[in-house]
Amino acid sequence: MTPIDRAPILTAAEMRAAEAAGGEGAEALMARAGVAVAHAVDRLAANHAVLILCGPGNNGGDGYVAAARLAAMGRQVRVAATGEPRAPAAIAARARWSGAVEPLAGAAPAPVVVDALYGTGLSRPLADAEAAALARLTQAATLSIAVDVPSGVASDDGRLLGQVPSIDVTLALGAVKPAHLLQPAAAACGAVRLLDIGIATASQASVNGPMRLAPPGPDDHKFTRGMVSVVKGRMAGASHLAAIAAMHGGAGYVALLGATMPGAPHALVRRPLDDAALGDTRIGALVIGPGLGRDDDMRALVERVLATDRALVIDGDALHLVTPERLRRRGGTMILTPHAGEFAALFGTPEGSKIEAARAAAARSGATIVFKGADTVIAAPDGRVVVSGEASGWLSTAGSGDVLAGAIGAMLARGLSPIDAAAMGVWMHGEAARRLGAAFVADDLAHALSDARAGR
Fold it and tell me: Could you tell me the domains of the chain?
């Protein structure tokens, strides 16, 4: 039972393919999964009695195996079920459970309840009686645990198929599933922990997590640590926030182009917004968009920036002044950071899961996409994806996106690949928010990047 940072993310179809590639039968896989669940429940449940809820399929079969193992370990365990299992491996697992099986609808509560009703691949809501029983039993429990995914969520896109109670801990079997990270399902999963069930998993999608960055060495100087230039917009405070974030996010040299900001740090370089500044070959990342404005003059400024060969972070208003086709023609290194409204304005209404939408946008534009939100999906044009789970609700404050643009710019200027720069910037942003706790503003967030990056 391990944290999910950097773990692969598999859809239901990809998970079935991984299971089939292992060449083992369903019963052998179920035996390993059920035993892994039992040992995790044993660790989590302390000395409390356990009630396992079993459905008719393989997820229910995992539950029967777990119940038998817990009983063999001397645990007090009961089983309640929707009815007799229908999947062959689940039928065999039920036969090896020697205890009683109670009807789900009439089951009495227990301090610890384990939801093994339905797993990945579910495409319909639970029956009303099943949903009511699950809600009643989880609400009465001190601790609720889901096997693989909470019953009633769509594992591939994070939709709620009906009323889904909030679970305290979800035990992901073999690999993380999209629903563990994508909203609104992720909010119902609670803490997600990964169980190794002996299946080789590989995917182009993975969970975001911190990367180990080497500290500056004896030969480093401000430019080897990365130069970020931020373009001033109509709202100078937004570009100032992005610049401060780039400084605290790790850039060695940050220039704010076109602004004189009273009270700005002395280490922040102010330069005129001219062709010499835009074309400075030392720039590792050029950030445009925070507080930019959307008038014709700003549209022309965006075109000037696109005409450079610098690596770009394009945020905020600038996303309304470009098209995917223009970006693809431009080429080069570009990271776009849209929230849902900006994404729809640039790429149209998203189709499919947030992961699928971000992948399609990256392929269409040739840019790395940071599709922001309570869940953030980062997609590269080659199909690789990194997903960050539930973020602090306190990030819903003016300027937090400007801070993120600056943090990503710092990582890009440092020399990380676009997808790694975006992923590390998103992680630092979330970690800074976590450290601040409640009731912060974006200025606090920008300064907190230093401690998040340094791990202090």
Answer: 12-204 (3.40.50.10260), 227-454 (3.40.1190.20)
